[in-house]
Specification:
The chain is α+β, with helices and mostly antiparallel strands. The longest helix is centred in the C-terminal third of the chain and has 10 residues.
Length: 202
């Protein structure tokens, strides 16, 4: 097994970047990017920790939960989670982030890269209130790069194809897996977990 340690070695294997792939990278959000973000109910946020390790986390809400403030700015409310604050503390150390927007039924995705800052202005958080509940913070993302990603990965995975979806009972419940991993005395059932989640979505 040979370890690849240089860009030249990589390029020898893969060849040059295709012209269309290079040209599709934008330095702002055009009308198509804005429309895709407005339709997306799900996004993956990538950050880098103080230790240099990468981290990715899912973010989801009603379509359009990420606000396009202008062609170089996004606003992302931080909804209740597990309070580990991995992404937020990572951003404090390294503000560079990557976003991947998905739309159910669409195999193409949108990638956005830039830098983020964490804001807690009352007037800003109030813009993202749901049923009177405000996010504690909002990420403001300065967009540096935006580009459409081809459909191949989602086509190979058949991500949206109901025929390949597994029955949830194929795996233990989250509670059972956590019991085994961290030695909990009892295991929360899947139904109990979902009910607890529903009570704290916002």
């Amino acid at each position: 097994m040979a370890r690849i340690t240089s860009v030249d070695s990589l390029r020898a294997l893969y060849g040059p970047t295709r012209e269309r792939s290079a040209k599709k990278q934008l330095d702002r959000l055009d009308a198509h990017c804005r429309r895709l973000i407005g339709l997306s109910p799900f996004m993956v946020l990538a950050t880098t920790g103080p230790d240099g390790l990468g981290d990715v986390t899912p973010r989801g809400d009603a379509p359009g939960f990420v606000t396009v403030e202008d062609d170089r700015t996004l606003l992302i409310p931080d909804r209740p989670g597990n309070n580990r604050l991995d992404s937020l503390t990572n951003i404090l150390a390294h503000p560079g982030i990557g976003l991947l927007f998905l739309i159910p039924g669409m195999d193409e995705t949108l990638r956005v890269n830039g830098t983020a800052e964490i804001l807690d202005d009352a007037d800003l958080t109030a813009r993202f209130a749901i049923a009177g509940k405000l996010p504690k913070t909002v990420l403001r993302v300065a967009v540096r790069e935006a580009y459409l990603h081809c459909a191949k990965a989602l086509m190979r995975s058949r991500l949206w194809d109901p025929a390949v979806q597994i029955d949830r009972s194929t795996l233990p419940s989250m509670g059972e897996m956590m019991r085994d991993q961290i030695g909990l005395a009892t295991a929360e059932t899947q139904a109990e977990m979902l009910e607890r989640y529903r009570a704290t979505l916002f």
